[in-house]
Every structure is written in C-alpha cells, then in structure tokens.
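Sanity check. The docking grid for pyridoxal-5'-phosphate depends on where the pocket ends up, so I'm generating a full predicted complex first rather than guessing from homology. Inputs follow.
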Amino acid sequence: MRYLSTRGEAAPRGFEDVLLAGLAEDGGLFLPAAWPTLSPAEWRALRGLPYAELAARLIHPFVGEAMSLATLRGMTEAAYSGFGHPAVAPLVQLDHRSFALELFHGPTLAFKDMAMQLLGRLFDHVLAKRGERVTIVGATSGDTGSAAIEACRDRAAIDIVILHPEGRTSEVQRRQMTTVLAPNVANLAIQGSFDDCQDLVKAMFNDAPFRREMQLSAVNSINWARIAAQIPYYAAAALALGAPDRPVAFSVPTGNFGNVLAAWAVRQMGLPVERLIIGSNRNDILHRFLAANDMSMRPVEPSLSPSMDIQVSSNFERLLFELLGRDGVATRTTMERFRAEGRMSVPDAAWRKATGLFHGFTLDDAGTLAEIRRLWEGAGYLADPHTAIGTAAARALAPADHAIPVVVAATAHPAKFPDAVEQATGRRPPLPPRLADLFEREERFSVLPNDLAQVEGFVRAHARRNA
Ligand SMILES: *Cc1c(COP(=O)(O)O)cnc(C)c1O
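Predicted complex below; grid placement will be based on this.
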C-alpha cells in the first residue's frame, strides 16, 4: 500500500513512514493511493468475527507489507483486550430503527481509545524494528491527553509528556492522566491556559535542535493510522445489521472530521452506506458548508460537548481532495486560500457530490440537554452530550419512511460528562467499576510556569529514561 499527500507534492510513502510522520512534508494529509475494496461475498465472510479479528483483517490492507496479518492480529488483540465490554463496540437499540454504537468502553471512556490503543502499539512495533525511539509531547484541555497517555504507557520505544493547564481540567480528566504511574509517562501542569500549553508544544516543535535531540513526535488526529483504526467498528455495525445486503446510515458527532471520515472510508471499501449525518454543536462550520457551500471560520464557542468545540475540521482536507478529483494542486490552492482568507467554497459539482452523501445538523446546548432527557425518558438510555447530538441528528435527517437502520456513533461514556447528564435527567451516571476507585488513586504530576526553557528542561529530564 502506497500513500499520497492531499497536496500532491510529497513523494508516495509506505505505511511505516505515514504512521511516524503524521503530516506529509508538503503540509498535506496522507491518503491511500487506491482504496482496498471487498466484494459482497468477502464482506459476508467477515460477519460474526470477534472484534479484534475483524479489525486485523480490515486494517491489514492499509498496512500492506509493513507487517504480517498475524503480527497485526497480536496487536489488535492486545489493544482491545482491556475494554470493558466483550463486544468491544456493542450496538444498543434505541428505537425501531436506530442504534447507538458504543465506542466508549476503552480505558478513558471515549472513542479515541478505539484508535489510540492500537496506534501506541503500532508506533512501538515500527520504532523497535528501526531501532528508534520518540518522545511524544502534547497539550490537552482534557480528553485527548488521557487517550494518548493510556495508548503510550509502558511502551518500550516511547516516552510521553502531556501538558495541561493547571486547575482548568475537570478532576476526572486530570486524574485519568495523572494516576497513570508508568515510568515513561510524565504529566506537566502549566500555570496558564490551554492556549499557553499549545503554544509551548508548538515552540518545542519549532526548536529544531531540541526537536532532533528529543526525537519529538505527536499522535494527533490527522495521523492516517488513526483513521484506519476507526474503520472496523463501522464495518462491524453495518455487517451486524445486514450489510452488504442491506444499506445502513451513520450519524456521527463531529469535531475534526476524523471519525466520520472513517465511516466514509467503509463506503469507499464497498459497503452500502446510504448517508452520512454530521452532528455539530454551536461550532457548526461543517453544517454551514453543507447548507450553502460556505466553509468560513468563526471564533470557537464553548459548549456542553467540548470535544467538538473546534474552528477548523482538519481531516476535512481528505474529503476535499476526493471531491476535487484527487487534484493535489487544487486542494493545496483551496486550503491555502482558506488559511489566508478564513473561508472557502468548492466548485459546484464537488459541493453537490458532498451534499448527495453528507447531511449536516447543528444543535445548541439547550437542545442537547433536551435530547439527553428524551433518550432517558423514552428509551432508558443515558447518553453523553456528544452522543445526544448524534441521536438528534439521526432523528432529524435519516429517512423515517423506509427501513434503513441508522447507527449513531456514541463517542463518550455518560460518566465522562456527569454534570450535563445530571442537569438533563436528574441522574448522575456512575463511573464503570474498573474506574470506580479513580478518586482514591495516587496522582503524579509536576507544576511549572509558562516558560519554554523550564518546560524543555523537564522534557529532557523525563525523555529517554530507558535509553
Ligand atoms: C474527539 C471527539 C469527538 C469528535 O471526533 P472527531 O474525530 O474529531 O470528529 C466527538 N466526541 C467525543 C467524545 C470526542 O472525544
């Protein structure tokens, strides 16, 4: 399998390079040179497999010659063995035709574990093979940091340092990071805001000698391997509901467009996905694009679904490249104009192609609370605010008059956002048993001022401890 950059200038790369590099050197995002496709008979043969086996078989074409199916299977089995449900990503029926695909049974109770648990192992495997190691640094306002820490803990070739703004994450979020006492994990509370943390990380990456010395790396949401690792759960849901002999629709609460892109990839691979519904909170740039071919940046507004509080959906560039007929020059020009002017549109034919498949939906906080209450009262189902936007979107935009099942990506456990759930339903969702002692566990983190030299000194002291 070879990968192309969406901006058309980087040389084609293999899976290992794409995994370790993340972003292409021309600033673009990697996509497979050709989509692997399965025939209906091949899809049918995958029905009923255990999740780790299905994942290995569907991800292997993207990995290509980089590792054997058996090696990859060993990694998917290890990645998903710690999940809190034997189905890994169970389907729960909500009404006569809609289902929640629960992606939150991993160690940090949000869907990012589905990809990150495998990504950490893929990184470790490829680095060990090459005799290399990396230091992962990242900034978090809460959720992505814990998923990255859980993915990298105890990996031999990786050290990880995560910066969070001191006192500005929820206690659950902080403890999910700071109670991981693995020797290759370090947490740093910065006396400043989330933006200060992000600026510190950027400054470390821009400090070329430091970046080289520490072999800095990131596991951000544009990494192709994360998308690939999100494909199997959409396939599993579709197969369980009768695909490839029956079409299915997906509704996905969306921020960076990564999760819904994986649902779209399943369609590229040959499953009958009838429509893709994109749920947004007040930060509705994608909804506005689909409504009027106007992708325009606005300031981020905080909401009850903070993991979707974004201004620019970075993974959208991959869809744009396909909409523009895989024209790297056109994609680069469009993205550069977007960065410079804060808005873009696409040629009419491309926009029509997008709106033929993707349907946008937006919901404010009051609507989100009402939807959480409706699900609780109607189906006895406790949904987190992100998931509720997905279910509301499905109700509004999936055709009610014919028998296509609609699968809603349930992206976070309700106990991850207990305040909103309690406000809506009067019930405070408890943490699952395996996390019930989170508040008694020992924490470890250091506190530093917003000062680059001190932060770099900390990273230096904590990296390469196993070297
Ligand atoms: C990250 C996240 C999202 C958004 O996913 P994208 O891939 O960025 O679209 C939605 N819900 C939750 C709970 C998340 O953590």
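Relevant for the grid: Residues 110-112, 143, 221, 253-259, 307-308, 386, 411-412 surround pyridoxal-5'-phosphate (CB under 6 Å).
Also worth noting: Residues 91-108+224-425 form a domain with the Rossmann fold fold (CATH 3.40.50.1100).
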